[in-house]
User: What shape does this take?
Amino acid sequence: MSYRRMEENHNIEDEKWALLAMSIYDDDMQLTAEEKNKIAEELLSGHNEKEQLQQIAKKVDTYFELKKYPSENAWEKVQDRIHRKPESKTILFRRFISNPLMRIAAAILVAALLSVAGYETFFNQNATVRQLEISSTGQQINSFTLPDGTLVSLNSNTRLKYPKKFGKKTREVTIEGEAFFEVKPNKNKPFIIHAGNAQIKVLGTSFNVSAYPSARLVEVIVETGKVQVLNTMTVTKQNDELILTPGEKGTLIYSSNALLKTTNQDPNFMAWKTRNLTFRATSLGEVIDNLEKVYKVNIRLDDPNLSGLLLTAQFNDYSLGFILKVIETTFKIEAQLIDGQYILKAKS
Assistant: This one.
């Protein structure tokens, strides 16, 4: 039917054309393919374009059926359905150009394909997932929210790589350094961390991971929930997996390729993030090790014998200056800052 002829009959056929358009666009009408074709027959009865419009109706039905198929197979299936009957490309092109209704229907079909198959799958089936990187250098401690809502805090000199958008089955990241994770629960999509030669897998929990390359080991300490730790370098299934619960620590030692589970004895494993320090008859040497890690400073004992002094104290987010004053008062020593390094020595 020509466009001019449609205009001549618009007084009689406006309602039917509107009904046909609604049958294509409006899902709420829930018309069957037979009902759609019947509308088309009433509009185009006796005209040459009847067969064309019926073919378009079939293609629209193909779109509705397409919703039942997985997106990765959508394009292949639709191609097969549309081109099942070979037709001259020249004639087909002319029909699309000359018939406004055909052009509209073609646009509907293309839009349907794009919405079902997805833009990236349709245009680039081999597209790679874009990786992003966040880092914390020097004395900085940075916190970030990942695409799934997981909160991660990075200790200094730490790098974390993650995809711009997580996959359908897993949420995978790679870490070099130390970080504390508060994983957003999702039982259908586990959170996986690649840390050196270890792989940590969780569903939703909070835990600390230390994987500095220079340390030649990976440590995982669980605060809440349950964590699986795998040794990715082990060939056999024996002793290559740990399940950790709150208060437990998993350690992968590179030199012996050993994966060990112990009870965490370090109350200050999170002090780098919280600056809350607890010492219970702790040697001054160990106290200094913790202060250096938390405050990113260098501290040296002038006399090695001072290392055996025992300190019992608790500091909740206090400054380094305040803690050193407590140490000076408790042990009658003094702290001097010389060339960027703190030196502790007995008072003369």
